[in-house]
Design goal:
5 strands; globular
Amino acid sequence: MIVWISGARGVGKTTLATALADELPGAVVADLKPISRAIREALRGHPCARQDHQSCPPWDATSVAFLAGLHAYIRGPVIVPMTVVDQDLLAALLTVLSESADVHHLVLHADPTVLQERIVSARTPGEDSIDAAEVRAARLRHLDSGCRSAEGGLHSDGHIIDTSTLTQKQVLTSALAYLVGRQATTCAACEDGRVPR
């Protein structure tokens, strides 16, 4: 299966993805940011370059090929912590991916005030103070737009987990319960006894 995790910056997508990978046998976390960086570098100064890398056709084509290929190779869960703002693009990505795997979309939500507090107070052991400060500043700059995007459409297609009052462990428990329930439903629907992809 492929588990796509959406949500505003700093809401805990990567944290949940890592925790899920520890709980699901054979799972891996697929980070699409290197694909974004590669496309930006390749198109630097080119007329086809765009400010939003997700609006470049090579991004979605490469991302789909990478995720589908990775899933086929490991034969286990692929977890993708990535927010796609364009709802039509996200729907298209998930539709194409569903041709090769069972796709589950989790949407992490947090009250904007809670999210701001988390971003400001977040600390990682051994973090580089300069890099960490830049990440926090970027997350705070995109806080309003990220929350608006989540409220405006991301919740319409996916299982929402409101993390506002939950611990990281409770978020993980909620996500696992949903995925186990979905897998059970899929198994029951498989008349030929096949294991869900």
